[in-house]
Amino acid sequence: MTKKLTRNAMREKLTALDEMTYTNYSRQIEEQFLRYIASSDASTIALTISSFPEVNTWGIIKQLWVIGKNVVVPKCKPSDKSMIFYQIQNFDQLERVYMHLLEPNPLLTKAFTPQEIDLIVVPGIVYNEKGYRIGFGGGYYDRFLMNYHGDTLSLAFQMQVVEDVETNVFDLPVDKIITQNEILLCKQNREKDE
Asked: Where does 3-192 sit in CATH, by number?
């Protein structure tokens, strides 16, 4: 199945999640993620502002502020498919942009370089256990990750992790995937096959 067909099929499954299941799974993933962060030395964490049916990141961001972490979120530049991450300290520093996405307002926030980010939570729609992913089709993260050397992980519902995904030479896998059921050590899964 092509990336586009796989993406569309998974989007349909995710959209069909009822509100209670979506909320419960998101909360379980949030708890797993925060436990992981508590044992990590990451102080600046990059993630997206979620919209349904993505794993809900709003509660995660609030908790990261509570425990004193720097939260940076991406601003996309469609002309060259690049991203710059800006620190947000409250949700009032966001603005609604194209396709109704919420992004940081650069006039109210401070930009961070890739070298200043300790952990990037990479979005996607389908993953395999080695950390390869199918994103939302823009290629923004693959471009950004080429110049990033810190830790990466993804938050996903267990149903988003499948046996295999179509990959190409430009695809960069994440190190871990946190689901409502487990933390997948993708980097170790890749090393087993080397």
From this structure: 3.40.50.10420
- Annotated domain spans of the chain: 3-192
Region of 138 on the Ramachandran plot (φ > 0 left; ψ -120 to 50 alpha; else beta): alpha
Query: 6 vs 1, 3, 126, 171, 172, CA distance in Å?
Result: 6, 5, 8, 16, 18
What pTM value is reported for the model? Answer: 0.91
User: pLDDT tens, position by position, for the chain (194 residues)?
Assistant: 688 888 888 989 999 999 999 999 999 999 999 999 999 999 999 999 998 889 999 999 999 999 999 999 999 888 888 899 999 999 999 998 876 789 999 999 999 999 999 999 999 999 999 999 988 777 888 889 988 999 999 999 999 999 888 877 677 899 999 999 999 999 888 877 66
